[in-house]
Amino acid sequence: MRPEDSGMSSVRVLERLYGTAPPPFALLRRDRTDGSGPGPVEVLFGEMETVRSLDDAGPAGTSPGPGTLALLPFRQMAEHGLPCHDDRIPLRVLRVSEHHVLPEAALGAHGGAPVRWQDAGFTTDDARYASLVREFAASDAARGGLNVLLRRDCTALLPGFRPAVAVELFRRLLTGESGAYWTFLVHTGGERPTTLVGATPQGHVAVEDHRVVMNPLCGTYRRPRHGTRAGDLLAFLADGKESEELATTVDAELAVLCGLAGPGVRVEGPFLRRMAHLLHTQCRISGPAVADARGTLARAMFASTAVGSPYAEACRAIHHHETTGRGYYGGLLALIGRDARGDEELDSAAVLRTLDIDHLGRARLSVGATVGSRSSPESEAAETRTKARALLTALTTPSPPRPEPDDGTAAAIATADGPETAATTGPETADSPETAAGPVRDALARRHAALSSFWTSGGHGTPGARGDRVLVLSTGGADLASLVHMVAAVHGPAEVVGYGEPGAGDTLSRHRGPVLLASGPGRPDDPDDPRMAALREVSASLVHGRRPDGAPVAGVGLGFQLLALAAVPGARITARTGTGIGRDVEVFGRRIRAAFRNAYAVTSGAPPVRQAPPPLCPGPDGRELIAMHGAAVRGVQFRPESVMTTRGAEVLASLLS
User: Fold this and answer.
1) pTM of the model
2) What mean pLDDT do residues 47-75 have?
3) Which end of the chain is least crowded, N or C, by CB within 10 Å?
């Protein structure tokens, strides 16, 4: 969206912002879509309404520029049938009637309003948060590849709070924080207004030039107070845990984006997003848009960065481990409008690194760390402290470039529960990332080269000669859009069939083309799970029944395990050993890096599977079964559609041919 000044003078705009009772408004500074840096400060005035869902948000308007700014709380997750604590935070919509552009210096020239802080601190200490991380990291779900953003809150009181104070906080963020995707202030107006002030690194979904774009971000390097050493940054970029966490986030966002885009989805990156106190790694994924802006937004809620992945499982984990609602934290701010040509546009950002202030001046800042099986409880606690400190340092320091100290609020948050574990000594000198741009660039290039070439080259394949329609069986709980996208690219049209649909087994058995059993959560031999019982019945009928024209049945992940139980004598299910998702394996002559995301594995009793007939492919230990390729029954334990699986498109094509 191109901000255009309405012609009203900056003085008149500022008078309204600093007035005693301003109308609902928003201040935004957003990244430019061409990647050239932050845009100007935009000011939006309008009417604020509470609506039930995005369906009631209204159209984008008819004139160029922003038409609607939506504030989506985290509890809107319930619209997708996912569990969340209902804290009754409303979905609000600012219907934009005025759009202005301000020089950034204009805010500082006004003089600002005094800001006072009281009683700032975390509501839970480091030990309690570390215990939460430790509990989750040891769980079967985490060992199976589940990553979850678990939050903790810090609170404060701003005596005498009024909208002018929020404008001053916004000004401080502009000068004290850098690298944010959106820096923003939203004031809802009314008798009991809510005010959000933040600098989020995470853009979510955008529609620009008829292309849908997402920016998955994961991985946090805490910049030491005394300067960043290039060696430390290079070690961070080479850390397998950090690489896997970003890849897991990209996989989750790919599954969303493939449901919103046509053929030609592309993954770019990873890149560094540099902020004042932190560095993040992120990718850019995009594809041709197939829905309007509001439809795209409704289907894309919410950013996996603020939730975790696999998405549905992460929502359930959040509901279990977090005992209160998130408010707007983890939700979205979304701006819908039209470009200069009159085409609809969308830009949105996850509500992270955001101070949520009520009408009494009570403020809450929620921060979180992405937790998985390889997480260090102490390190994750330190990461949340750093995130809180980064925002509060900017908010509590009147003029960050000057050497004067703040009032101690940010320091209290950062050090209340212990020292900053990532702090190092030594200045940012010749060993800095700025002077070592080549090695940093090379490290990012190596990580890019390790991603699936199918996705980095634009998601195009060569469909098989037969091109028979593939029926993909949904085993429950997983978003299959990226798998279906890859199937369509390497073989031909695909259609998803739910395992619980009436007559699903008969439909699959009579189908003349390939059948693919998708992955999903759970243990396939669980005797008490009705879903697994139904899936075992379908799998057995496909393995032992007669298929038309000898069309193959294949499986990935859980689908592979179900087929192996039915087809391989002596096969049994065991808990997967080891940590991490990515593994180097050899599959039928192909040496690949593959993403193993299930908590369970298929093993065979004596003799080891290396002595079994050729259709079976063992893992390095000779007992775990990672692939099979018979004439009629095939599959792989790993996820070929993952951005981590280097030759996944080739593997999938061979399963379906």
Assistant:
1) 0.85
2) 88
3) C
